[in-house]
Amino acid sequence: MPERPDASPGPGSPRGRRRYVTDPLLGTLAELQTIQPYNALKSYLCPGCNQEIRARTGHLVVVPLNHPDERRHWHKACYSRASRHGVVGR
Ligand SMILES: [Zn+2]
Fold this sequence. Notes:
- 11% of the residues lie in helices and 27% in strands.
- The protein has one helix spanning 76-85, and strands at 19-22, 29-35, 44-45, 52-53, 59-64, 72-74.
- The strands form two sheets. It has a four-stranded antiparallel beta sheet with strand order 1-2-5-6.
């Protein structure tokens, strides 16, 4: 049986790819997850604009590492604005 070059998981492995960011609301370390449209089965409230993220819309989820219950769903545009400028008018 030939060796499979992709058998060993390495740092470049596409599986388990994670991005860590600072949560714009809590200011703590959080994991950023990208939700694809086909995985967005429910609608959510975006904390950046207080508007609904409709089902079947690709968006982002921010999961604080120390407070996983405080996960928030964001529009991509709202998240990038909040992560750059902070959240105002909460
Ligand atoms: Zn939004």
